[in-house]
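Response to reviewer comment R2.3. The reviewers asked that we include at least one raw input/output pair. We reproduce the pair for TetR/AcrR family transcriptional regulator here without editing.
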Amino acid sequence: MGDYADRRRTAIEDAAFALLIEKGYKATSMLEVARRAGASNETLYKWYGNKQGLFAALVKANARDVAELLRTRLDGADADPLETLATVGPLLLDLVTGERAIALNRAAVGDVHDTATLGPALAESGREAVVPLIAELLGRARDRGLLAFDDAGEVAETYVALLIGDLQIRRATGAIGPLPDDAIRTRAMRAVGGITRLFGT
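Raw output as returned:
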């Protein structure tokens, strides 16, 4: 896809996110997104198929940054795995509790009785994509003698529980507001510290 098409796709997805946050999933239409983005309705249907396809694309775009950072760090064989985890943690926590992620989670709940496609898309592009990368990172920490455990997948799930806990659901239900940067950094460091205490050699 060329630069122009990439810019148009970005404009469409930004418009969709803005409307999703402003109005919610059910009240956001493809036509409104097209108007907000200055695109044609036909373009939206050609590129995304339908409303669910558009919002599934938003899910993938929202999860892409953290997954790409993790993959980049995993490609760097010399990087300290626990330092990488400390670097990635705040980004992951900011991602899953940010306005876009919370709006997408609310959309997935709103779609349960319609097409039930957004929930699986969230799981596939989010947790199912990121947790194996975290497990690989933790496996490298074990290989270097920094941690000791049998199942990297279980330790990755423990790390995610320590990092995120119930924050995302509390954000999605409106029980708490956006997390301040210092709170995100503190929680991320505590998650790494928890893993070190539980599994450190």
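The chain has a mean pLDDT of 89. Residues 147 and 199 are 5 Å apart (CA to CA). Further pairs are available on request from the corresponding author.
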